[in-house]
Design a protein that fits this description.
Low-confidence stretches: none
Distance between the termini: 23 Å
Helix content: 25-40%
Largest sheet: 7 strands, mixed
Order of helices and strands: HHEEHHEHEEEHHHEHEHHHEHEEE
Radius of gyration: 19 Å
Length: 307
């Protein structure tokens, strides 16, 4: 039987590209030494039918196209330098709708203090936005440079967007997080001086943990440390959804997942939440509120295989 890309998924395709390239950095972004600093480069493609949920405005589409790229800069601890926008749109798209997309892009660039410096346009059967973000940092935050005993932390609540995708009420914190996420660029700039590793949560906490895992290292996550609100549990229950599944396996949080030594945790000037620790177990585990321990399944959103 002929193997198809849907049989292996996006992450295996990326591994193939990295294995066959001599110049790609296997991290959240490309890292290029530039004089006495490092140029950080990243790109992310958003396709209307796959990445823009029902109810998302054209303005929010434009804003998100910047956010997803700036989030990668944040994970590397890079200061924003410039943003390139390539956009393909249907020829029957209304001009006012196009202007709303661009307004979202420009407002996001102002919000993150990253100037729009160029790009390209083309025609397509649906809206496709490909952004490229550039940044600078003297000390890039890598995603797998943690040590046993480090604490595992996140910069905010996770799972809010996952629940928001399931709701129809627009004036709701969960829906707002789903439709207009924000990159943690300020937090990334602070973390680069204290954290031992970092990445951003786009495909779900579980997926990110497995992506950064090294042989011989493990992660123990504690449910009680999530500090899940009763409201969150109630809404998920009313929708007949497993709230832990939403928090672990859906993604689109754009919070930073980072590790840090116990000594440096108290030096941080940002809000964050400790959710676990790095171990020598070589597995990814979850301690439930009832004390039972279970393996966390390696599952999250993945192109070519996720519906």
């Amino acid at each position: 039987m002929t193997l198809k890309v849907s049989d292996i998924g996006e992450k295996e395709l990326i591994k193939y590209i990295i294995a066959n390239s001599k110049s790609i950095t296997p991290d959240d972004t490309a890292i290029t030494q530039l004089n006495d600093t490092n140029l950080i480069s990243t790109c992310d493609m958003l396709i209307q039918s796959r990445h823009f949920p029902k109810g998302m405005s054209y303005y929010d589409m434009g804003f998100k196209s910047v956010t997803v790229n700036v989030s990668d800069l944040a994970a590397m601890g890079a200061e924003p330098l410039g943003f390139l926008l390539s956009i393909a749109i249907p020829k029957n798209l209304e001009i006012d709708d196009f202007k709303q997309i661009i307004a979202g892009v420009l407002d996001a660039c102002d919000f993150y203090e990253i100037p729009l410096i160029g790009g390209d346009t083309n025609e397509a059967s649906e809206i496709i936005i490909n952004g490229t973000a550039l940044g600078l940092t003297d000390k890039p935050l890598m995603k797998d440079t943690y040590q046993i005993g480090d604490l595992i932390c996140v910069t905010g609540d996770i799972g809010l967007a996952a629940l928001g995708f399931e709701l129809d009420v627009l004036d709701n914190i969960y829906v707002k997080r789903a439709l207009k996420p924000e990159a943690r660029i300020r937090e990334g700039l602070i973390l680069r001086d204290y954290a031992t590793s970092a990445t951003d949560i786009t495909d779900g906490l579980a997926s990110e943990l497995y992506t950064i895992k090294k042989d011989g290292f493990g992660f123990m996550i504690h449910e009680e440390m999530f500090d899940v609100s009763d409201e969150y549990k109630r809404i998920a229950g009313e929708l007949e959804l497993d709230y832990l599944d939403l928090m672990l396996h859906v993604g689109e949080d754009f919070e930073l997942l980072f590790t840090i030594s116990k000594e440096n945790l108290g030096k941080l000037t940002i809000d964050c939440k400790v959710i676990g620790e790095v171990t020598d177990s070589d597995v990814v585990e979850l301690t439930l509120e009832n004390g039972f321990v279970e393996r966390i399944e390696n599952r999250g959103y993945e192109h070519y295989v996720s519906e």
